[in-house]
């Protein structure tokens, strides 16, 4: 899936040309290639499109293992899509859709792996500045993008906690028992973060915040709200399991 922000595991890697490439160029390439993928109607051509993606990962200092790691959280979704499309339409269409989603995810993940989060957000805000006259607030879009990136590891941790609770209750690997509480927790965390931002009026007006305000919103508010959201459910597991 989309890589966690900061990509701290890259600290010991030599910076590749892809790391040094301007974020705006990467985003433009993602938009153009994504449009091209939508126009492809043959699954064999789509499968061939995996080759340049693999070459890009190798050029950035990664490889097939990193590609699989990025796709692992989506495996069940891709399998469900493949089976559903195969039974309702055709297996060729199912393979085409699954490959298209996988390639888009891999390309987006490569951008987050090779670009610092702060630089990526600043680039997005800068690209959206001309649309301010149409009512678009670049600062708020940047905040939403930043929160989305930082929620990825939080949601993964929530899923791990729910799976551990399922194992303690003897529920096995029931996907519905995982999906429902995960969706509820995610929505609650999102509501808590929105309330925290609104209560502190950190984003009133159209002017973008400085780096200190953005850091406070992204780190402190997200962390405390996520802890508050997850505390009741995790604490309620232990008493029942003891009984």
Automatic annotation (TrEMBL):
Q: Does the keyword Kinase apply?
A: no
Membrane-crossing segments per the record = 21-39, 45-62, 74-93
What family does the entry list?
Belongs to the CbiQ family.
Source organism of this protein record: Rhodobium orientis
Where it mainly occurs, coarsely classed, is membrane
Question: Where in or outside the cell is it found?
Answer: Membrane
For membrane topology, the record states: Multi-pass membrane protein
Keywords, A to Z, come to: Membrane, Transmembrane, Transmembrane helix
Q: Which PANTHER family match?
A: PROTEIN ABCI12, CHLOROPLASTIC
Enumerate composition-biased segments (Low complexity). Answer: 229-243
Q: Which GO terms describe its cellular component?
A: plasma membrane
Highest taxon of source: Bacteria
Region Disordered, annotated ranges: 208-243
- What residue spans carry the Polar residues bias annotation? 219-228
Descriptive protein name:
Cobalt ABC transporter
Say yes or no: keyword Transcription regulation present.
Answer: no
């Amino acid at each position: 899936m989309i890589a966690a922000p900061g990509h701290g595991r890259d600290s010991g890697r030599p910076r590749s040309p892809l790391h040094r490439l301007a974020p705006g160029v990467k985003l433009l390439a993602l938009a153009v290639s994504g449009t091209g993928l939508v126009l492809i109607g043959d699954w064999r051509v789509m499968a061939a499109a995996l080759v340049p993606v693999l070459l890009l990962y190798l050029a950035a200092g990664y490889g097939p293992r990193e590609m699989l790691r990025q796709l692992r959280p989506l495996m069940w979704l891709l399998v469900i899509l493949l089976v559903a499309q195969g039974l309702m339409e055709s297996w060729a269409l199912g393979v085409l859709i699954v490959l298209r989603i996988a390639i888009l995810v891999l390309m987006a993940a490569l951008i987050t792996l090779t670009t610092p989060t702060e630089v990526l957000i600043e680039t997005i805000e800068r690209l959206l500045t001309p649309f301010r006259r149409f009512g678009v607030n670049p600062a708020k879009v940047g905040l939403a993008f930043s929160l989305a990136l930082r929620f990825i590891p939080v949601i993964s941790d929530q899923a791990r906690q729910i799976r551990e609770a399922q194992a303690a209750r003897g529920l096995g690997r029931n996907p519905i028992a995982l999906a429902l509480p995960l969706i509820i927790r995610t929505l609650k965390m999102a509501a808590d973060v929105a309330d925290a931002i609104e209560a502190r009026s950190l984003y009133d007006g159209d002017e973008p915040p400085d780096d200190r305000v953005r850091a406070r919103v992204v780190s402190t508010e997200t962390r405390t709200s996520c802890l508050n959201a997850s505390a009741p459910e995790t604490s309620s597991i232990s008493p029942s399991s003891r009984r």
